[in-house]
Amino acid sequence: QVQLVESGGGSVQAGGSLRLSCVASGRAFSYYAMGWFRQAPGKEHEFVATISWTGRNTLYADSVKGRFTISRDNAKNTVALQMNSLKPEDTAVYYCAARPQWGSRLRDEYDYWGQGTQVTVSS
Questions:
Q1: What are the C-alpha distances in Å from 112 to residues 16, 54, 84, 85, 95?
Q2: Which residues in the chain belong to E strands, given as ranges?
Q3: CB of 96 within 8 A of CB of 80?
């Protein structure tokens, strides 16, 4: 079992920045690929980014590429999502998730999920 807890959400004006963090406990964090997803009201979960267990490999959704950066610190059991140049369409609940293999953009392929943190971007 892996327990995930997100933090760092909040309200910001368009063009601003936020940094989300996800702390993991339970089984060895460094053996899991980590991902960030988001869900806007009335919409399905949307893939945002994923990072391999070494941190060497990353993938981003086209909608956030160049604005968001995913990173991890295995010594601290954390994964972060730095979000810059935020837009109103980035408003959503953001979730971190874990799975053993890296490379998936599919929600159903992730085994463990956090409770989510709200990000609201005003125009």
A1: 30, 18, 26, 29, 10
A2: 2-7, 10-13, 18-26, 33-39, 46-51, 58-60, 68-73, 78-83, 92-99, 112-113, 117-122
A3: no
* 97 in Cβ contact with 113 (< 8 Å): yes
Six token digits for residue 23: 């702390």
Instruction: Give pLDDT < 50 ranges for the chain.
Output: none
Q: Give which of 73, 69, 45, 67 is closest to 59, Cα–Cα.
A: 69
Q: Which residue has the tokens 């610190």?
A: 73
Residue 113 structure tokens = 């999920």
State the Cα–Cα distance between residues 21 and 24, nearest whole angstrom.
Answer: 10
> Under the phi-then-psi rule, with left for phi > 0, alpha for psi from -120 to 50, and beta for the rest, what region is 97?
beta
The predicted pLDDT at position 99 comes to: 95
- Measured in whole angstroms, the distance separating CA 58 from the mean position of its chain's CA atoms is 12
Q: For the chain, state the CA radius of gyration.
A: 13
